[in-house]
Task: structure prediction
Amino acid sequence: MVRGLGELWSLLRGHRRSVAAATSLTMIGTGVGVLQPLLVMKVIDNAQHGRVPMWLIGALLGLFVGQAVIDTAGHYLLERTGQGVLLGLRHRLIDHLLRLRVRVVDTRRIGDQISRANADTTVVREAVAYSFTALVTSLIGVVGAIALMVWLNPWLFLLVLGVVMVAGVVVLGALSRIRAVSERGQASVGGMTADLERALAAVRTVRANRAERREAVRIGAHADAAYQAGIRMAKLDSIIAPAMQLAVQGSVLVVLLVGGVLVARGSATLGSLVAFLLYATYLVMPLSQLVESAATIQRGLGALARVNAVFTLPRESDGAALRGPLRTVPAAPVRPRPAGYAVSSARARDAGTGPRPAVEFRDVTFAYTTIPVLRGISFQVPTRGQVALVGPSGAGKSTVLELIEQFYEPDEGEILFAGRDVCALSRQEARGWVNLVEQNTPVLHGTLLDNIVYAAPDAPARDIDWVLSAAGLTELVERLPRGLHTPVGDHGVLLSGGERQRVAIARALLPKPAVLLLDEPTAQLDAVHERALTRVMRGIAEERALLVIAHRISTVRAADQLIVLDQGRVLAQGTHEDLLTASPFYRRLAGGPIPPTGDGVSAPAVAERS
Result:
């Protein structure tokens, strides 16, 4: 509990002056409130003697109004501070979530993380904004009320204390369970959000498979769990509230009963009885605030535990892995080639000459879990030209692109960009060197222009026009009612699959990367746009490097060089024609010798996506 309070207190860093000011105002208001029963006692005692000084009435009215003004100012400061804490916490959480390692993102549920950034942070705000101030001011109110009650009538105070202690035992028992119940409830809400996000993101698949009822049951199970946690919380609250009400009513009844007898016997004045009764109320009310603050803190600690669990997840580093100047790696030594390895005669002549390759893999090994996906692969991508990765499903082609984009780091070996080890580059610099067109071509909610300029928001109009033409989007823009400013819907649902593919290609081309990574760019294009894009890719390859995962034979034939992968190893490199002769594996993969094909003549695909 003490450690949890320390974590809550740490959230106030940068807001402690506001909290101190709010606490000071509330303390002053509490002190003003404690003085009021004494003035009431004076007024009543003076009234029994026939006169009431006007200054007493004025002082009492002034204290009452002053307390209202001070409490209002303190409450505003607390509310503003709470909103500031919530804003800062959400900014930190959003930044951390967006920078999580891809390996972590792939194993976490998006909806649950959204719930932590939304619902859980709100609960934490309630705990931070009010609880510390309430604890301090309530303790001051309790101490002040106890001191004055003992001064007025110590024996009557002991009777009130007995009533309060009976209620306190019940309340403490309930408080000890609130945090666990609250944490289970928040987890259920997170699970419900995650499953709802899952179903809505694939709503067409859900309906096409008539799975609406099953998804509703799945999501409803989380809602049921949240309901059960809410019922348990309601039970605990239903214990706390009557217990505190018992303390208030019991204290009032004891004071009226015993105090009335004392006044009747002349052992106490009517004014002292009224003052004591007010202090008894003042004692129980701060105690109620203490209990409420403790319950809120318990809920906040449960929510904070879920939020802090996100901050413990590893995130990508912003800087280079190595300090100091960029290091250039010396040329790789010649290694024995594996059996079945083939290389084109042109590449053999150019080996060791010319500029450093745009991308180079040296003995790279990588595994997502314990089973290696890449097994010591080495290859080069020249600064210009089109290189195609081919191979059967699971060969490791997509993994190569993910390593180049720094979504993952190799377990062994080196990846070089223009002779520089990527470990010596910041991720921003490395990702500025390359850009990726994913096969599923995600399109973001917003306008067509928002998606195209996503990587280069300040791109000039001429560059935008160029990528529109290059990706074959000019006709689409002219056809849309608002042109580039037409909304594309959530996940680009208002565009066809081929249109989304071309939008992704335009987006990747706009920042003009040195290396363009394409995960089967023609997968969702018709024959006309495929031929157009092939011509565009040929033009782009004259200026920069293209590394393409090739599925269609048209992409294979357009490549200057093929890299054949199988079971995480490079089996062969060369042109399509060379490999048909030199590599039996590639010949089997391509379905045997493939005669030249004209437009409109089908040919077998080389491989499925890995």
